[in-house]
Amino acid sequence: MREFEYTRPNDLDEALGLLGSLRERAKIIAGGTDLVPLMRENLVTPSHVIDISNLRDLDFIKEEKGLIRIGAATRMRTIEQSPIVKAKIPMLAETAQLVGEIGVRNIATIGGNLVNASPAADSAPPLLSLDASVKIRKLKTDRTIKLQEFFVHVKKTVLQPDELMTEVQIPIPPPKSGGAFIRLAKRGGNIISIVSVAAFLALKGNACSLARIAMGSVAPTPIRIPDAERVLEGAEPTEERIRTAAEKALGNIKPISDVRASAEYRKETSKILVRRALEEALERARSGS
Amino acid sequence: MKPVQIDFTLNGKPVKVLARPNQTLLDLLHNDLRLTGTKKGCDRGDCGACTVQINGRAVNACLVLAPQVAGQKVTTIEGIGSYEKLHPVQQAFMDLDAIQCGYCIPGMIMCAKALLEENPNPTTEEIRTYISGNLCRCTGYLHQIEAVRQAAARMKNSNPGSQDSCKSLALIGSTAKELYMLGLTSS
Amino acid sequence: MKTFNSIGKRTPRLFSEGLVTGKEQFSADISLPHMLHGRILRSPHPHAKIINIDTSEAEKAGAICITYKDIPLVKFNPRLVSTPETTYKDWTVLSGEPVYCGEPIAAVAAETEEKAQKCLELIKVDYEMLGAVFDASLAIDPKSSAVHQKILLDKKELTVENNIACKLEFSEGDVEKGYKEADVVIERRYKTNKRYHTQLETKSAVCKPEPNGGVTVWSTTQTIHNSRILIHQVFGIPMHKINIKKVALGGSFGSSIHTNISTLIAVALALKAGSPVKISLTREEDMRDHSSFQMIFRIKAGAKKDGAFTAGELEMLMDIGAHQIQAYALLGTVFGWWASFYRWRNLRYVGRAVYTNKVPSCAMRGYGNPQTSWVVETFMDELAESLGMDPLDLKLKNYIGLGETFFGQGPTVKSVIRSCGVEEMLKKGAEMIGWKNRHAPSTDKGFLKRGIGLSRGFHTSSAGAPISSAIVDFSGATVKINQDGTVDVVTALMDNGGGTMQALAKIVAEELGVPLQNVGIVQADAQTTIYDVCTHASRGIYAGGGAALKAARQAKEKLLQYAAKILDVNPDALKISPDEALGQGVIYVDALPGRQITVGEVAEHARNKNWGTIAATESYRPTMGPPHFTAFFVEVEVDTETGIVRPLRVVAGADVGTVVNPDLAAGQIYGGFAMGWGMTMFEDMPYDKETGDLMSWGMLTDYKLPTAYDAPPVEDFKVFFTDTYEPTGPWGAKGLGEGSYNPVTGAIANAVYNATGVRFYELPMTPEKIQAALNPRKTPEVVVAEAA
C-alpha cells in the first residue's frame, strides 16, 4: 500500500472542507470494504485518506416528513436490523443482509455501496424501485437528485471531486404496497450477483398505482426497467401481465458475458427473476398494511 | 508520510501505537503488535479468517485501515478466555471436534462469539447464515454449527460441563465391532 | 471382542488448545530477529524468454535481489515421492524462460513487506514473447507451440514431443474379444474442471541461514524430510546442516506434497542476504502457484444381459499445466482407480499427460480418484439404464471386494483386499435414503425437481505394497517413556488437519496401556526424526500410525522386561492398563494382586539404576495399501428455471475398519461433501486466452467455495460406519481422508440426472449449464436490415 496522509475529521463541515481543498488527491473511507483491497494492490493511490466512518452526522436512520432518511455512513448491518426499515421498507433490510458476510456488513455502508457504483451493487435495485434520492453536499452547497441520475457508468457517478454523498432519502411507501429483491448467484452467501431484480408494487383497488422494477448486473449501471413497468402501471397485475412484463424486461437490459456468467444466461434468468420478484412483491402488497 | 498515533483498547487494555497508517488492522496486529492469532486468508474480505470484534461486532480486519480503530474497542482471539478456562465457544469447538487444520478457527470463533453476544438463542438457520462468511475447506461446517449451538446452550446454563447437546451426536457403542450412526437431532 | 481404552471413543480434539487460542504458529506467523520479507516477481506472460533483467535500481534502494542467474541451474522435480527412475524434472527455482503466467522469475528481500514490494517494482525486465497453448487437446497437435523442449528423466535428457510430458499404457486380456461377447457396449466422453485447492493458509516459508553454512526452515509442507532432500539436491548443502521444522499446516489437500517453490526461493534469498527471510504468498499468488489436474476421458465397456462385464477401456488425457509435479505417477493411479472399481475382465488403458502454459498441476485430495469416480459412477448409471438394471445391483454384482486384487495407486502397487464393507454399506445406505422409492428420472411436476443419486468410492490407505515399486512409502517413529510415566512420540509425520497426531496418540496409548492424556506428540524436525515420506494418500493413520505402533510395541517390550525384573515376574505374564484415578498406566499380573507397578515407577527405577531409557525407534513399510470404502447417497433439488441446485439429504457410509476418531471421521465426510459440492457445481479456473492469465485474477471473489450456508441441514446428513476390521492396520484401522471426497461428484451428478433426466459430461455443472440444458435456447431471430 502506498503512503498517504490520514485524517479523521470531527464533523461533516471539516470533512467537506478537506475534500474541497484536496479534491482528486483524496479518497473518502467509510467501511473501506471496496477501497481497502484496491489500495492494498495500489490500484487506487490517494495521497490523502479522509475517514468518515465515525461521523455521527452521517450515521442515522430517521423517519421525517414522509421520507425515510438514511445517512450515507450507516452500516449495512444497522439497516438490516433497523426497526424503521424492517417495518416500512422491509425489502431494503432483506437486501442489506445479502450485501456481504457479517464481517463486511458490520462496516460496509450504504453510501459506499452506491458511490462505488458497481453495476452489481446490491443496494441499488431496491433503492431505485423505491424511487430513492440521494443528497450530495459540498462545502457551501448541496443538491438532491434521483438515484437514477446518480449512476453514469461502470464505477462512475455524477459526484464531483469535492462532493460527498451524505444521505439517501426514500419516500415512505403507501399502504397496500410491497417490494421484493431477488438475486441470482452460483451459491448463497458472500458473492457478486449474476443478476438481481427489485420489484415494487402499490395497489389501488385491483390495479397497480405504482409499478417499479430495477435490476443490477445487466447493464453498465443498475437500471430501472420502464418497458416492464409500463405493462403493469394502472393495470391489474394478472399472472399473464406479470409474465409479459418479465418478457418486456429483456428489451431494457444489455448484459455482458464475464467470468461469472454469459450474457445468454443473464437474459434467460432475468425473465425468471423479474417474474418471481413481481409475484413476491404482489403477495406482499396484497397482505401488507 | 507521518506515522499516526493510534490509541485504542485492545483485548480490554488501553494501547498506544505509533504506526504507519498505510496498512490494514490485520497487518498492524500481526507485524506491529505480534498478535498472530488473527489469520490472513485472502486479504480482501472473501474468507473471514481475519475476523475480529470491533466494539463487539464481527469485522474482517483486512478491510479496516489501522488508524480507523482509534478510540474503538478491538478484541482478538488472544483476548478471549484465559489460561485456566477457555471461552465457551473455544471449549465447544474442541469438544465437538469442530477443528481440523485450525486455520479458519480463530476467525470462526470470533464470529460465533459476536453472534452469541448479539443473539444468545440463535436458530440453526441463523447460525449458518451468520458464519457463512467464514470459509472452511476442511470440516464441511456441520460440526462447527453444532459447536456454536452447544456454546449457546452452555452460555445460557453457565454450566460449562454440560454434555446435553453433546449427546445428540449419538454414538451407539464405541468399539469397532458395533455399527454406529451419527444422526444429529435438533436440541 | 476387543474393547478399546481410547480408540473409537469420543475425545475432545487433542492438541488443539493452540488452535482455539490462536497461539499455534503457522509458517507465516513466525518471526525471527533481523528477519527480512521476501516478495516474488512473477511473469506476466504465459510464455516468454527474458532478454534482459535489471535489478540495479532495486538493489540501490536497499533490497537483496535474486534472478534466475543467481540460483543453481539444477533441474528438479519438487516432489520426491517417486523413485528417481520415474522422476521427470523440468523446474528451476527461478525461470529465465517462464512458461506460465505467474511463474517466479526474480525475488527481493527487504526489511518490510512494503519496502520489498516497492523494490520489486523497480526491477526492469525485457521479454521476448513466445507462443502459448491453453487447451490440452490442442496442445498435442504438432502445430502447437512447445511448452518445453528438453526435460530430464532422472539424469537423462529427453526431448518433449507434441507437449506430451509422459505417458503410460497397460493392458490385460483382450478387450476386442470382450466387446464381441457383450450384449451391450457403451462409450462416453467426459471432461473435468481445473480446480484450486483453496487451502486456507497460503504457501509460506521462513528460512534462517545458520553460521555453519546450513539453513533452518519453517514452511508449509506435508513432508519435512523430502523438503530437506530437495534443498540438498538444489543448493548442495549437506543434509546434516539442513533442518526443516514441523509447523502447523493450514490445510493442504495435496498442495504441499511437493516442496513449494516459495520455500526454495526463501532459501535462496536467505543464503544471499545472510539473514532470515520470510515469504508468504498472497491469495492471488497462491492461486497461480498450484492447481489440480484437468482430465479428459474416453470410457468404454461391454456387459452381458445379466450385468457381468466383459471388457473395459479407459483413455485419459490430462492437462498438467506448465510443469511436472506428479504427472507420471498420476497416470498410473488413474489406471489403478479405474481398474479397482469393478471387474472389467479385460482391460485396456492409455494415459497421456500434456503440458499447457497454465498454473502447474499437483495432486489434489484423491489424486485422480474424484475425477475417475465421477466418470465411472455416472457411466455405471448409464450402463445400468441400458441393461434395465438398478445401478445398485449392477454395482453389487461387479465390485472388486474381499479377497480380490486391488490396484490402488497404480500398476505397481497391488494388494489383496482383506476387509471390505461395500455390501453392508450399500444395502444400509439404500435403506436409509429410501432408494427403493426412487422415482424415474424427471418425474416431479413443477419447476422444482428432486432426485437421488448414488456413487461408490474408495481410496488406498497409503501406497504400501509387498514389493518396492515406483513410489516411496515408509514411515518412522520414536516412542520414549519418561520418568513420570508420560510418553513422547517423535515422528516426522505431518498433520494436515485430519487429526493424524491425535490418532497416533491414541494408537500409542492403546498399545502402552497408558491414559491418553499422558501421550504427547513432539514438535519435531528433520534432524531429530527418522524418515517419513509424506502425509498423503490417506496414509496418516495406516502407515504413520503403523510406525508409531511398531515403535510402541518395541518400547513396551523393554518396559515389561524392566518391570519383570523389578517385580520378579515372568514378563509374558504382565499386562498394562490405564488407571484414570492414578493418572498412570499400571503394570500388573492377573493372578497376583500385590505385584504391580506404574509405568512411571519403572522408568524412574531404570533411571536411578542406570539401566537406560525405555525407548524404541522403528521404520515401517506397509505391505499393502488397503482400500477404505465409502458410498454417498445424495438427494438434491433442482430449480429448473435458474439451474440452481441445493442438497437436501445425504447418507454416507464408510468402511474405515476400526474407527479411531469417530467425530473426526464424520468431520472428514462432511468436509469431503462440501469440497465435492464445490467441485461439482462451481469450481473452475478458466483462462483468458488473450492475456494468458486466470480470468479470476487469483481472487476468491471469483473462485467460490461452499459456505456454511450451502451445507445440507445437519439433521439430514447421516454418517455411518460399517462393521469391519482391517487385519493389517493399527488396531484394525484404515484411512479416510480421500475416500470421504472421491465419490461425492458422481453422487451429485447422478442425483441431478434422477431429478432432471439430463446428464452432464463436463464439470463444473454450473447453474448456467443446467439451465441451458433444461431450457434449450431458441435460435436467435435473423434480423433483416431495412433498406435505408
Briefly summarize what is shown.
With 289 residues, chain A is an alpha+beta fold.
Note the run of SSEs of chain A as H and E. Answer: EHEHEEEHHHHHHEEHEEEEEEEHHH
What percent of residues of chain C adopt helix (DSSP H or I)? Answer: 25-40%
Task: Report the helical percentage of chain A.
Answer: 25-40%
Ranges of chain C where pLDDT stays below 50 over 5 or more residues in a row are: 781-788
Rg calculated over all Cα atoms of chain A: 19 Å
According to CATH, what is the topology of the largest domain in chain A? Uridine Diphospho-n-acetylenolpyruvylglucosamine Reductase, domain 3
Radius of gyration of chain C: 28 Å
Q: Tell me the name of the CATH homologous superfamily of the domain at 31-132 and 197-287 in chain C.
A: Aldehyde oxidase/xanthine dehydrogenase, a/b hammerhead
Major β-sheet annotation of chain A: 5 strands, antiparallel
Give descriptors for this structure.
heterotrimer, A: alpha+beta, Uridine Diphospho-n-acetylenolpyruvylglucosamine Reductase, domain 2, Uridine Diphospho-n-acetylenolpyruvylglucosamine Reductase, domain 3, 3 domains, 5-stranded antiparallel sheet, globular, C: 788 residues, alpha+beta, Aldehyde Oxidoreductase, domain 3, Aldehyde Oxidoreductase, domain 4, disordered C terminus
Structural topology:
The complex is a heterotrimer of chains A (289), B (187) and C (788).
Chain A (H helix, E strand, L loop, with lengths): L4 E3 L4 H11 L3 E4 L5 H6 L7 E4 L9 E4 L2 E5 L4 H6 L1 H6 L1 H9 L3 H4 L4 H7 L7 H6 L3 E5 L4 E5 H4 E3 L2 E2 L6 E8 L5 E8 L10 E10 L2 E10 L6 E2 L1 H7 L6 H11 L13 H25 L2
Parallel strand pairs in A: 1-3, 2-3
Antiparallel strand pairs in A: 4-5, 5-10, 6-7, 6-10, 8-9, 11-12, 12-13, 13-14
Helix pairs in contact in A: 10-11, 11-12
Chain B lengths: L3 E7 L2 E7 L5 H8 L18 E4 L2 E4 L12 E3 L12 H8 L9 H14 L5 H7 L11 H16 L22 E3 L5
Parallel strand pairs in B: 1-5
Antiparallel strand pairs in B: 1-2, 3-4, 3-5
Helix pairs in contact in B: 2-5
Chain C lengths: L16 H5 L14 E7 L5 E7 L1 H5 L3 E4 L20 E2 L14 E7 L2 H8 L3 E6 L6 H4 L10 E4 L2 E4 L4 E9 L2 H7 L2 E8 L12 E6 L5 E5 L4 H12 L6 E4 L15 H13 L3 E4 L2 H5 L6 E10 L5 E11 L7 H15 L5 E8 L14 H19 L3 H8 L6 E2 L8 E2 L5 H12 L14 E13 L14 E7 L5 E5 L8 H13 L6 E3 L18 H28 L6 E6 L4 E6 L2 E7 H10 L5 E7 L6 E13 L5 E11 L6 H20 L5 E2 L4 E2 L22 E5 L22 H13 L10 H8 L14
Parallel strand pairs in C: 1-14, 12-13, 16-17, 22-23, 29-32
Antiparallel strand pairs in C: 1-5, 2-6, 3-5, 4-7, 7-8, 9-17, 10-15, 11-12, 11-14, 15-16, 18-19, 20-28, 21-22, 21-27, 24-25, 25-26, 28-29, 30-31
